[in-house]
Amino acid sequence: MTRAEILAWIERHGSRRNVEGMAxxxxxxxxxxxxxxxxTLRVLAKRLGKDHQLSAALWESDCYEARMLAAFVDxxxxxxxxxxxxxxxxxxxWAICDTVCFHLFDRTxxxxxxxxxxxxxxxxxxxxASFALMASLAAHDKAASDAPFLAMLPLIEEGAxxxxxxxxxxxxxxxxxxGQRSLALHAAALRVAGRLARSEEAPARWVxxxxxxxxxxAKVRARLARRTRRR
Length: 231
Known about the structure:
Elements: H1 3-12, H2 16-24, H3 38-48, H4 52-60, H5 64-73, H6 81-90, H7 94-103, H8 111-118, H9 124-140, H10 146-159, H11 165-178, H12 183-197, H13 202-215, H14 218-230
């Protein structure tokens, strides 16, 4: 399918009700939004297969769903630093940010670099992308040792002081996900969560308590114990 055919397909499969529902969850975009569900887009992405050039063309279109689709069809081996920076600069809601990071960027060779670099950004969704990348790497990079994740914890602790809700929620997501990789990371993440929970700054306290509640739960501890026994 060409870009024009895909855009026509998106328009046909859109739903005004879905657009309104997305808006209630804070999913708004400067691009056109047609209200096609992610599940439906994933079905189309499977048909299209990996296509780096098509992905680039879809991203350049003035369509939210086309950009979501771009994340599913791109080839992470062909993604460049320049592309990652350009796309991150275009993020305008949490859904596109998290989807691109979780399904594409975390599989690139630049993922660790960008997670560290973007954590210092002043731009809301670029900084959110930093923490989304950290969480995605924690979930997907099974070969990584504890060391690079331990190095991320100071960045998360600093980012937790950001007052913007989507940034602090991203910091909590990263801290909670890293803390569930191993017993050592769990202990380290709980220490960070404890310090944050005692902070005089409201955003940091929120992140600390949110992360601590999950990491200290019996469910997470039991899952970690089972994983340790299997090893």
